[in-house]
Amino acid sequence: MPTENIPDIIISRLPIYLRALQRFSEKGIQTTSSQELGERVGISAAQIRKDLSQFGEFGKQGTGYYIPFLMDKIRSILKVDRIWDVAIVGMGDVGHAVARYPGFSNRGFRVVMLFDASPEKIGQKVGDLDIKSIDNLVSEIRSAGVKIAMLSVPAASAQDVASKLVEGGVKAILNYAPISLAVPADVKVQYIDPSIGLQRMTYYLD
Amino acid sequence: MPTENIPDIIISRLPIYLRALQRFSEKGIQTTSSQELGERVGISAAQIRKDLSQFGEFGKQGTGYYIPFLMDKIRSILKVDRIWDVAIVGMGDVGHAVARYPGFSNRGFRVVMLFDASPEKIGQKVGDLDIKSIDNLVSEIRSAGVKIAMLSVPAASAQDVASKLVEGGVKAILNYAPISLAVPADVKVQYIDPSIGLQRMTYYLD
DNA sequence: CAATACTTGTGCCTGATTGCACAAAATCTT
DNA sequence: AAGATTTTGTGCAATCAGGCACAAGTATTG
Fold it and tell me: Which of A181, B27, B67, B88 has the most CB within a 10 Å radius?
């Protein structure tokens, strides 16, 4: 890739484009334009063209973008042209729902390990995975080479577990716990907190 | 509030500050500084001071911010100094996990209605709420005055349900379905898609 | 009580991000 | 086949956001 130093805000939009393209594709649509895609995802056409042009020339004047080709390109940029192994830590309601979520497999991810701290959960099956003890977290993820984890433990233990994940070599954490995590600069964190999402909207309500 | 036209990006940070303050408060900490809060949430101190200064002068030189006071102010700005009724539509795994999530009640929200389309789920209880038929969605939410909904139906029906929510008077949607929604300009949408979160990080992995 | 340390709110500057508009290329229409 | 239409990629301008640094106010220390 001819990438120098792409702003994070551009990277953060690419998965949205990819998701929309995937839906176009499932409907049998072969081709789209920045205009059409923009209307679909609520982003200006110029923005989309400029974002994509950071990585190459993927479109054709007069025609637009050939969807399978563009999807390949974006997948390659985002490195989801492969399957990433993911561990889930914390098998409460949220962990269970995430473990059974069917939307990972066609987007580049595979859940391969489940962990929990409570003894009565250890050994239980969720799907076809056993829940393992969090005591062995560091060594298990290290030897399995897992680089991505989803964190669905209570807020009180989230920082401790996050530090263990980092110790085990994890470089990307999707954090469902309602707390900001402190991690080294080379570790990425994305936050999922429904209350934050709701509070970002109430400001605009009457 | 002396608010003119505050950028959305500032609004979007306030819930993060509030969440951190809530944790300080639970630990019995009465006072903090922009410096300390910034380190906690990973945002520069200057940024925090500038954000807060948009709404008034909440701090005191030499001392910092008195946490209960600042929390009240932010809650008031975000309009979570009250309890908002929320409906959940789609009672699959995700809907169930969200319905049972304990983190809403102390952050300004109360789940009051559950809906699903499948006949065998209708009438089932989750917590102390009955699952209602989605057929009555519009009239039920309208008569209950619900303004906020969480959408956890499959992507294929998400747009249809979202339009129904809008028809019923909903002005804020927390969308768990992996699809961009088209809604009128006065309706806010926040997206929760774990695959998007993961794909925003893989770019930075080796 | 004077000197020191801490911390806010903000003016200014710099850099980042977005939108506009157009040449160039491809396609479509008559 | 000529003109009209569509659409990209990009240079430029304008807006937006973030960081620096400091005066002023408050607290602490000796």
Answer: B88
Q: In this predicted model, what pLDDT tens digit does every residue of A141-162 receive, in sequence order? A: 999 999 999 999 999 999 999 9
Smallest CA–C1' distance to C27, residue = A62
Distance B43 CA to C10 C1' (A): 18
Alpha carbons B114 and A190: distance in angstroms, whole number: 28
Q: Where are the alpha helices (DSSP H) in A86-172?
A: 93-99, 137-144, 155-167
Nucleotide D27's nearest residue (CA vs C1') is B62
Assess contact for B113 and B102: CB atoms under 8 A: no
Tell me whether residues B172 and A201 touch, CB distance under 8 A.
Answer: yes
- Could you read off the pLDDT of B141-150 as tens digits, one per residue? 999 999 999 9
Spatial distance between the Cα atoms of B122 and B119, rounded to a whole number of angstroms:
5
Model confidence over A124-144: pLDDT tens digits? 999 999 999 999 999 999 999
Residue B38 belongs to what H/E stretch? helix B34-41
- Residue A63: which nucleotide is closest by CA–C1'? D7
Structure pTM? 0.96
B44 and chain A: CB distance < 8 Å anywhere?
Answer: no
